[in-house]
């Protein structure tokens, strides 16, 4: 998707008059998906000689090696610029690069591609730069749209009655210049009346497919889809099941792909790990976008696709009978598709659904669930493999669910279901069970009959409890869980209802990749450590204590799981366990309520791959000194450090840090010393800091704190009368006045 913008930018540089005069010869080659290396080399040779002198005879008869040799010899003494536009494979560069000598004459090579992995693979040295084009900002997108849609109007301004519709249309384009220009151009030919524009807005999917003004957009957007291998195509089409602008967690998406049978097994890897590779491939091809959401001081990754790509997918899944979407205005169920997705439906939609061979059912934005639909669901959809009720308005699960013998995936996340019926024990093929954010507090003993079960996620957050050990709850499980030896994810279970027998059972779950346990007591620490050592594939570990005074004892692990990448510890620690220093693959370390008295940084600064370090009420000392190390750390969070007075950063430390979050830290009166050394820093967040702290961070104070080259946003966040108050960009001339009047003028604010 990014290829079009890159082509436009490269073309502007290439055709610039200054560029023309700066180089001895210029070559532009459009590569495309079906390229021929020999033909490209011949084209390069002709263009190089055409600008300067006659080319050697019989170029068309020359083989690849000779062409490379001739080009290299000729360009050795030239200052050249070569643009390879729309490159689809890294193999292309591996061949043509031999024709382009590095001659120390200021020559330049520009490559445009839609695939991030290709851009990285083309880097030959540290000095080669990868520039990832970003979508247009909202202001720039609006400016471009108005210039195209109202090109014949005075001052190219949008009439008031069309502003809202126009903004909605621009929002759909999500900063994609190709789409903005095409849709704006089409609208310039329409009457400037709301009805015409609303018609286009509501029928954009069919317009993209049929309207000659927009078919080029669809064709270009579809190129990346057609370049996918078959197994990636079906995974990509799955995004059409979800509503427009919908973000999905990786856990949900990967479990669904696995249940759908879309993942090809690889020796030594779990299917969900292969599925994650598929997702990364789609991201690198810029077909899937990554978004972030903050959740209990943690950043949760979610995934979505561009609205216009969503429109093209809807057309494709309808054509292939991959899935049918029922929504307001489209309530007729034809029964041909294997997947049924119901969006924002009224009761009559459910009444139209009759028996079919549907394998998957999804519900989105449903306000009311008719009792008749639930009865019909279990009676007539006997072949279901996927049942996704996330956030649906249901408060119970009928016993008849046990008749769905083929069911592999059951998602009740966000529902009000309190109890799982005993009949779930009949779901012999169930692989994934999602009970996150439900009132379910206990798993029935019948679940131990589900020998194919791989994923169980069953924790809930109480958002009414701010920053508390008790804000996360797990579920009770009976002893005997060790029989589920295919389990790869188990989170969260409660430990306080069991003796040592539970931990002996946990030690049998050697396939676990993700494990979470809450309500731990100190005396059970050794038994837990013994179990963790046997989880040789473990990547994510979450441990929470039963109370704020209870110590988490994890010292007894002598041989930690070598693949451990993410650790979340919630509760008091005597000190950081020594075995953490051995984790060469550790990426994330998050500590809540640890109240460490021993200095923590010396223990973790040497971890070679640590990217995120979050300390939340985790250290009772007065000073943190970053003296070195942390060479890959990108995000540092220091929250609720009540005794912390000073943070010092030496030059050379935290060299990769991009995001810094601090606060509330009531004793801290100064911005971290040495913050100007953080040359990679982009985002700074200060939460509910004291007045003295903010006054000292003003640029007018003469301090050079903000001489940080890449910082784009500095945010101050406060709660005033229960509401979050945010101030952006310290350059605001009225900032100090607003701070004094709005925050410290109200004594209740602090």
Describe the SSE topology.
Blueprint (H helix, E strand, L loop, with lengths): L2 H13 L1 H6 L2 E6 L6 H14 L13 H12 L4 E8 L2 H7 L11 E6 L2 H6 L16 H12 L13 H11 L3 H11 L6 H9 L1 H7 L4 H12 L3 H8 L10 E2 H10 L11 H14 L4 E7 L2 E7 L2 H13 L4 E3 L12 E5 L3 H5 L8 E5 L6 H10 L5 E3 L20 E3 L20 E3 L20 E3 L2 E2 L10 E2 L15 E6 L5 H7 L7 E7 L4 H10 L5 E6 L20 E5 L17 E5 L8 H4 L7 E5 L6 E4 L8 E5 L6 E4 L9 E4 L20 E5 L3 H6 L16 E8 L2 E6 L6 H10 L6
Parallel strand pairs: 1-2, 2-3, 7-8, 8-9, 9-10, 10-11, 11-12, 12-13, 13-16, 16-17, 17-18, 18-19, 19-20, 20-21, 21-23, 22-24, 23-25, 25-26, 26-27
Antiparallel strand pairs: 4-6, 5-6, 14-15, 27-28
What is the assembly state of the chains in this entry? single chain
Mean pLDDT: 83
**Stretches with pLDDT under 50, minimum 5 residues:** 699-704, 728-750
Count of individual helical segments: 23
Round the Cα radius of gyration to an integer and report it: 30 Å
Structural class: alpha/beta
Helix proportion range: 25-40%
The largest sheet is: 18 strands, mixed
User: How much of the residues is beta strand, in percent?
Assistant: 15-25%
Q: Looking at the structure, what is the overall shape?
A: globular
For the record, give the distance between the C-alpha atoms at the N and C termini, rounded to a whole number.
47 Å
Number of strands: 28
